[in-house]
Amino acid sequence: MEPLSDTDCAGSTHTFEEVKSKRSQKRKRAAADAEMQPEETAAAKRPQFPALSGDQLAGGEVEMRRVPVPAHRYSPLKENWMKIFTPIVEHLQLQVRFNLKTRNVEIKTCRETSDIGALTRAADFVKAFVLGFQVEDALALIRLDELFLETFDITDVKPLKGDHLSRAIGRIAGKGGKTKFTIENVTKTRIVLADTKVHILGSFQNIKMARTAICNLILGSPPSKVYGNIRAVASRAAERF
């Protein structure tokens, strides 16, 4: 564009030059930076590394877990040994044995172990069986990721003794195990009553519902009221998800 000119009274000519705005200069710089950017990103591209196996992640070291077995679980362990042995060895690629001297189930990794979390899952599976859960229920700990085990004592909720403690255990179990089965079915968990210990297997949210129901029973709530509460909570949870 040609510069404009103006003539004053004395006859001298002044030229008016176009001043470039700062905005246009910024835009041009931004456009130039955008053109340069692909070249920079290509130069600074992240390196691609191959995936590491479980053996390499562990640094080549053999890891071991020991699960102690109480005396009253020796016979069930012997009867169900193949059901426990098969998923640990074939699916998780681990080695397992029962040490007769120490009375422990020993699980360890080997070169074929590909999953770094397999050892923990196998130990949880054996621990669940030792606590009194059926093999089929405990097997869910290997197949599913979002399952947990929780254990608490009845006396932690309320310090009961003698007949009062026996009645609290009876309220949790119910006549013929009816109350326990109802809580299991509504909350989708598995519950084991072992003396004063309560073991719950399930997802985090479901364990919370079952624990609340059991604590209410220990504190003296009638079963009918507890049934209504857990059904209401379970229906709200179903609607939410």
TrEMBL record:
Residues 146-219 form the K Homology domain. Keywords: Nucleus, RNA-binding. Signal peptide: none annotated. One of its GO terms (molecular function) is RNA binding. It comes from the Eukaryota. It is found in: Nucleus, Nucleolus. SMART domains: KH. Belongs to the PNO1 family. This is RNA-binding protein PNO1. It comes from Cyprinus carpio.
